[in-house]
Automatic annotation (TrEMBL):
Name of the featured protein: Endonuclease/exonuclease/phosphatase family protein
GO cellular component: membrane
Gene3D superfamilies for the chain: Endonuclease/exonuclease/phosphatase
Gene source species: Horticoccus luteus
SUPFAM superfamilies given in the database record: DNase I-like
Lineage top rank: taxon: Bacteria
Amino acid sequence: MPLRVLQFNMQFGQGWDEAHPDQAPVDLDATIAEIRRHEADVVFLQEVEQAQTGGRQVEPPPNYTRLCAALPGYDSCFSYPRADPRELPFGLGLAIFSRTPLRDTFREDLPSPPISFDFFGEAKTPTDRVLIGARTVVEGREITLLNTHLLAFFMLKTSGARYPQQRERVAELLRAQNGPTLLAGDFNASNHAALIAQFGACGFSTAQQTEITWRRRPYVLDHIFFNAGLQCTDCRVEPTPTSDHHALVADFILAEQGAETVAPSSAQTAA
């Protein structure tokens, strides 16, 4: 039975306005309709909430709460990044929704380097990022689900090659996986070929790498990575006016068990 996966940076429900993208209205109902229309079995979301003044994190998370109510029949998990008063008013927070029950949920902080950048005349440094994960069972097979949103070094006028720690930590988690695994997210890599090569060395392929997924610049920022425990049978980028990112939809089937990757004996499990 195919497993449909949706990867979507929902930008806290803010739609797209070509003329005034930063002033586009927030319409969470339109975001929910966009998520529903793909009828995915697993949904990976980034920028679920909007950052608040002083880094305040609203509990319960309002957008995630509405999503849970609007997506009955899904199990889910959510995490903010580590609270930080330096947080800027953009999107933050990750969620995973699954039609099959989730278990062994976890989060991993991904520290950001102390790079100084200008934000409307003020010197700022970036806040930390986060990766979340869970496990589920499909057709009697356990699948690991990982979701992240990495720092956009190109927005800070530098390169991830100079500050590789976030991606290296994600790569460590990939190498630790013993069975079918999906890693989705907004990887904010302007040079997506280097990202694909790095995770390829860990035994993971991306579902697509040719179509642009971000409206603001011609970059392939969004990916669904998978290892040999899964086979991708179809993938498409779905343009949507409900975010500055397009939606990415992919279908998978479970591979023969003998084809699954085996982690090195020295690797630790992600949980």
